[in-house]
Amino acid sequence: METGNRQLQIKDIFSNRLLSCGRDTPLVDAVKLMRVDKVSAIFVTDNERIVGIWTESDSVKLNFENPTFSLTPIGALMASPVHDIRINKTLGEATIKFHQLGIRHLLVKDEDNQAIGAVSLSDIVRNQGLDHYLHFRSIADHFERKISVLKSDDCISVAINAMKEKRDTAVLVFNETLAEYGIITQRDIAYMVLNPDWRMVCWQLASYPMYSVTPEDSLFDAYRLMTAKSIRHLVVKDPKTELVIGLLALKNVLTEIETAYCSELEKVLAQRDVALQKSEKNLYLANRIIDASLDGIMITRCDGEIIQVNPAFSILTGYQDYEVLGQNPSLLSSGIHGAEYYEKMWIQLHDKGVWQGEICNRKKNGDVYVEWLTIIEIKEPYSEDVLYAAIFSDITERKNAEEKIARLAYFDELTSLPNRRLFHDRLSMALAGAHRDKQTLAVMFIDLDRFKEVNDSLGHSAGDQLLIQVSERIKKKLREGDTLARLGGDEFVILLTEVSDIDSVVEFANKILEQLSVPFELGEICVTATASIGAAIYPEDGLDSEALLKHADVAMYRSKEIGRNSFQLYRASMNARSLERLSMLSRFQSGLDNDEFELYFQPLQCLTSNRISSVECLLRWHDPNLGMISPAQFIPLAEELGLIIQLDKWVINRACEQMAFWRYQGVDIRRIAINVSAQHLCQGDLAMTVAHALNKHSLNGRYVELELTESSFISNLHDAKAELKKLKNLGVSIALDDFGTGYSALSYLTKLPIDILKIDASFIAKIPDEYGNSEIVSAVIAMAKALNLHVVAEGVEKPEQRQFLQKLGCHTLQGFLFCKPLAATNWINFYNCAKLTS
Fold first, then answer.
1. CA dist., res. 82 & res. 54, Å (int)
2. CA 427 to CA 442: how far, in whole Å?
3. What are the pLDDT digits (tens) for 113-158?
4. Alpha carbons 437 and 668: distance in angstroms, whole number
5. For residues 378 and 500, what is the distance between their CA atoms, to the nearest angstrom?
6. Which residue in 681, 759, 670 sits closest to 724, CA to CA?
7. Residue 568's beta-bridge partner residues?
8. Where are the beta strands (DSSP E) in 238-330?
9. Which of 300-304, 483-487, 637-641, 760-764 has the lowest mean pLDDT?
């Protein structure tokens, strides 16, 4: 273990014969040099500087199928970097380095850092004087039992693949004819480079006969036999059967010597320096902690040389340890930070011994990422050497998430406009400025008319596209300093700063209405989206954000009430209407629960027989406090609250119940017509609702007519057609209501099972005097008759309208001229009178 009073050092055992070649040297020439010198490794140089190493074990990685592989420059096959050790280091230190790096060769350097030779793990083992230890170790526990045994006529490529996959240093070859075992080693594969023929059979390359030992023999016997015969492998045979049961390699023997040496070395180190043993334990624990850390860790010398990285470093950067050991951390530089940035870092590091902060670095694949980096200065005790530990984590996703969260906190995700929160901030600042400078500003509410109809008919993606296009058009009209925000849904709000007078606000609103009047292209469909706009002025209509927003909202609802597609400035009288609407909203659900709704009935007159042909049921709401409420007020509320389908089901059930009762009384009318919402048809259970009501009241489906608007079919013609077919199977008639006011795609009339066409009252009101409307009504009736559709004219109030329709051959009229909607009792009286007079 020791020479004199000192432990053996590298200079006592190393070989100063340093076999090397240039990196451009062909592989075949490098192997020739190794064969001449009988060595297992060759170092690779570049401008006289050693940059890599190639060993016999690397031969199994070669592609022997490539006819020119032997001419490959050794530089393309070498392992790099080359690990080295100083000549004055102890064998114990060298052994630890071998184990840590998992290698068997080290470059030896002198005090001037010049390469002067090499040392292998075998060199160290052979110089420990531990041969006697092998006397007490039998072969039984150390030979390899799972060794690949190939057939003699197997291709040599099979041997190469076996060694590569199992990382074996050799394979056995059995010749059945000779009943003999041979062996092929990594050195044999390496020497094949000199005469490559990967198609040759294994037996041509195998060495035989082989010397054998038994499991009971000692390792010393095996070591002595290998040394005497200059071989590195022995077969192990069962002493009873003489069958080969495994292979003993020189490395197995050396490993046992290494184990013994390490054990002895541990004892010596423990006896010589207990404190050093404690230090090693702490170092081990530190390394385990470093390896287990999820943060990347890199340790460098004071000159920047990287001496250690952990697995997390490789995961985060993409660089493996062998790619960065010996390199400078600058290989991670992103190039984003200038020299001044790093100068400040080093000044703080030298002053305080630590630096922390965000830094952008670059991964091996070129991706730039943000990391949170901590650098710690480590001064070794009893030494002037300084190390630096860099601990970092990739915070790119966190930074992106923070930016996204910050954006979501202040901006609308769909339109990228400021959201409610940011708008309130800007409005508060603008109010403070307006108050200070005695200026006027305006808050303007914009709500799209019938946006819900677009969403329900064309789908949410079309609705989203419409909102984006609306925001883009409005932004074009803004001045610098003004703000457009989206509060949610189809509600927008504008802050106009430095308003000169009221006329400028009105002019701006009219420009917005004009911009929105141009149709929007949503895919293949053009849609017109009007808006209702309301505005409140500071300081006349409010002194704070809450008051201005509230009053602008009230003015906007007033715009909707007077017919939409309009602009209203706030007036104090509007508050009463707003409070009325809120009161009605809170009463609606209560009205449903307390049965405050009632059906009214309006008869339809046949223009041929003048008799009542059918009746349409119309919904009314009798609120105990608010009195009679028009459907024009509460139907939009039902849609807004999501209660329209519930209301539909109530109407369908009550109408079927009433019709069944009239049939029982002998009332002779063909059908009762029920208005149904587009939402109910789109939901897909309308036919089920009707079927349930018919079964409940024992009513035949032919006595029921469902009235639907054209918007019901826009979103999904296929599903609408399927649902209508289910209704037709129940015997129900289908009427297309308000014809001419919607999309008016005439293809619906042929593709859908429609029985009745109802011309909207807005067309009937202007006949027979107005030429355009009269021609439209004439054309609609002619078309309907050609399609065998029953035609109903809605809103007939004048005798001349009746006469005009009768001449055109219209089948049925409905309107005040014949009868207004009546309560159930009054309607029966009207029916009986009409029956007597007909």
1. 10
2. 10
3. 899 999 987 787 677 665 666 777 888 888 888 888 999 999 988 8
4. 76
5. 68
6. 681
7. 534
8. 244-249, 296-301, 306-309
9. 637-641
Whole-angstrom distance, CA of residue 697 vs CA of residue 367: 72
Distance CA 635, CA 450 (A): 13
Going from the C-alpha of 611 to that of each of 656, 669, 737, the distances in angstroms are: 22, 9, 22
Percentage helix, strand, coil for the chain under 3-state DSSP, each rounded to 5: 45, 25, 30
Q: Count of CB atoms within 10 A of residue 638's CB?
A: 21
Single-letter residue type at 246 = G
Rounded CA-CA distance 3/515 in Å is 99
The string of DSSP letters for 258-270 reads HHHHHHHHHHHHH
Query: What is the three-state SS of 482-531?
Result: CEEEEEECCEEEEEECCCCCHHHHHHHHHHHHHHHHCCEEECCEEECCCE
**Tokens coding 22:** 């240039």
pLDDT, mean over the chain: 85
What's the whole-number mean pLDDT along residues 168-189? 89
Contact 20, 73 (CB under 8 A): no
Place of tokens 């649902």: 723
Cα 240 to its chain centre, rounded Å, is 67
CB 736 within 8 A of CB 780: no
Instruction: Report yes or no: 672 and 617 within 8 Å, Cβ to Cβ.
Output: yes
Q: What is the pLDDT of residue 706?
A: 95
Q: Give the whole-angstrom CA distance, residue 830 versus residue 814.
A: 15
How many whole angstroms separate alpha carbon 682 and alpha carbon 723?
9
Crossing angle, helix 631-641 and helix 644-665, to 10 degrees?
Answer: 130
What is the structure's pLDDT at 571? 77
Angle at 622 between CA 631 and CA 652, to 5 degrees: 60
Residue 681 tokens read as: 């048809």
Name the nearest CA neighbour of 181 among 151, 161, 153: 151
- Separation of first and last alpha carbons in the chain: 133
Backbone angles phi, psi at 440, to 5 degrees: -110, 140
Distance CA 371, CA 342 (A): 15
Q: What is the 3-state secondary structure (H, E, C) of 197-234?
A: CCCCEHHHHCECCCCEECCCCEHHHHHHHHHHHCCCEE
48-73 exposure pattern, b = at least 16 Cβ within 10 A, e = fewer:
eebbbbbbbbbbbebebeeeebbebe
Give residue-wise pLDDT tens across range 689-739: 999 999 999 999 999 999 988 777 766 677 888 889 999 999 999 999 888
β-sheet bridge partners, residue 612:
605
CA distances from 707 to 99, 558, 584, 638 (A): 87, 30, 27, 18
404-443: burial string, b at 16+ Cβ within 10 Å, e else? eeeeeeebbeebebbbbebbbebbeebbeebeeeeebbbb
Task: For residue 493, count CB atoms less than 10 angstroms from its CB and return exposed for 0-12, middle for 13-18, buried for 19 or more.
Answer: buried
One-letter identity of residue 750: T
The reported pTM is 0.40
